[in-house]
Write a structure and sequence with these properties.
alpha+beta, 3 helices, 262 residues, 30% helix, single chain
Length: 262
């Protein structure tokens, strides 16, 4: 069974060097060489295709830059802020005593903490996007194969005694034994948040959407980071995959040789 570990390290290292690094490099190339399309460009493009009878089937891979458009706001459950989008997570934190035997054979007691996810909520399946070229909006289908790069804006643990400061916990039933408190997390998109988007434009009815490309080699990215920040992030991930893969292969080969000669 021990030979499985070095084999897993070697295979994992090769996959990281070849597959993950290549995936990151492709993203970098796409972002560097794509020209930015405006919402007006998209409207004109689909109008032309509609005139040619191709509007319902036409899809085009695009890069767009603009801001979130939010006619209706969302109130975050824990930080109590008005935002355009919020994904939240609530986890119960409990503790229990655990008996174990140390290296000398003596029985010891330690406290083990654990987290159990209670709820995960998402404010919306879509985001509306616009830029300065047009008053019309584009729908971002973030729930379908999207690399949705949204910052975590709230991450806090509160013990049970402090929960009365949060309106979310009014009439909340705490039915877990050994409950210490709750960990609250939120990922949000602010009102009028600038966005960088790389995806495939298509039309449903009279509305233009940007979503997951039909070409599996292309990516769908929606990020609050700028294009330069996204390129830097992908280049860093590519380097990490390459050198991390080399390290995993070296360790795996070393373990394999050691086990074969031991």
């Amino acid at each position: 069974m021990t030979i499985i570990i070095p084999i897993v390290l070697i295979v994992g290292g090769v996959l990281a060097m070849v597959f993950l690094r290549s995936q990151m490099a492709n993203k970098v190339r796409e972002m560097k060489f794509m020209e930015t399309t405006t919402v007006k460009d998209l409207l004109d493009m689909f109008s032309t295709m509609q005139s040619d009878g191709l509007g319902d089937h036409f899809r085009h891979y695009v890069e767009v830059k603009g801001t979130v458009y939010s006619p209706e706001t969302v109130r975050t459950p824990f930080s109590d802020r008005e935002v355009a989008y919020c994904a939240s997570k609530l986890a119960a934190v409990t503790q229990r005593e655990e008996r174990y035997r140390d290296n000398d054979g003596n029985m010891r007691t330690r406290i083990q903490k654990s987290e159990e996810t209670i709820t995960m909520e998402d404010s919306s399946n879509t985001l509306l996007f616009k830029d300065s070229s047009s008053d019309q909006c584009v729908v971002l289908d973030i729930k379908n194969g999207c690399s949705f790069d949204v910052p975590e804006t709230f991450d806090r643990f509160e013990n049970v005694g402090n929960l009365n400061r949060y309106s979310y916990f009014r009439n909340f039933h705490h039915n877990r034994a050994n409950l210490l408190g709750y960990r609250m997390q939120e990922k949000t998109v602010s009102l009028n948040q600038p966005l960088y988007v790389l995806g495939e434009a298509y039309k449903e009815g009279d509305i233009i959407h940007i979503g997951k490309p039909t070409d599996r080699d292309k990516t769908f990215i929606v990020s609050t980071k700028s294009e330069d920040e996204m390129i830097g992030k992908c280049e860093s991930n590519a380097k990490f995959a390459f050198f991390g893969g080399i390290a995993a292969i070296v360790v795996g080969v070393g373990l394999l040789i050691y086990q074969l000669i031991a």
